[in-house]
Write a structure and sequence with these properties.
- The chain has 178 residues and is of the alpha/beta class.
- Strands 3-2-1-4-5-7-6-8 form an eight-stranded mixed beta sheet.
- Helix 1 links the parallel strand 4 and strand 5.
- The chain starts with a strand and ends with a strand.
């Protein structure tokens, strides 16, 4: 489900309780005017998309400059990212650079959106709490350490040029879950 503000439109590809917009965000534009939303949430959506660039571009058009986009998705090294047969691709914290214009300094896929990476909160399984000193190494080398992640992106308007830039260093917040 995609939720948007300020009135919190609830979007899904199928009708259901609480859904007031039914459309495929990958191929249909939202009926909202451009530069309309301050905040958008995608809760377990992006991993199901076959064309995430088109979906992110469509959301960028209706987002105001500075709009925050919170994306919750399984971490790519968690079995849940792979076991659900409706999941199309896994995501990792670094995957979201592809939604920013500077990423396309080497190749242009016609993508017009520009979302800047703001941060990530990862849900680490409680049994790894005792390994905080080398948690990053454990995450990079092991499966099923991180369950989900919430990535925050910010709409940049107008879009930045497609040129190589050094990415900002953004810290990763860790929460421990059972």
């Amino acid at each position: 489900m995609i939720e948007t503000g300020p009135e919190w439109d609830n979007l899904d590809i199928r009708e259901g309780p609480g859904i007031n917009l039914v459309l495929d965000i990958q191929g249909e534009l939202l009926p909202s005017p451009n530069d309309y939303y301050d905040h958008i949430r995608m809760h377990h959506v992006i991993e199901h998309l076959t064309n995430p660039l088109q979906a992110m571009e469509n959301l960028w058009f209706v987002a105001k400059d500075g709009c925050t986009l919170d994306i919750v998705t399984p971490h790519g090294a968690d079995d849940t990212a792979w076991e659900d047969q409706t999941h199309v691709r896994p995501y990792f914290p670094g995957s979201f650079a592809a939604f920013a214009q500077p990423y396309y300094h080497k190749a242009d896929y016609g993508y017009l959106g520009d979302w800047e990476f703001e941060g990530v909160v990862i849900e680490v399984r409680k049994e790894f709490e005792a390994h905080q000193d080398n948690l990053q190494v454990i995450i990079e080398r092991s499966r099923n350490v991180v369950r989900n992640m919430q990535v925050t992106l910010k709409a940049i308007k107008p879009a930045r040029p497609q040129e190589a830039v050094k990415p900002r260093q953004i810290g990763m917040q860790v929460i421990y879950v059972p």
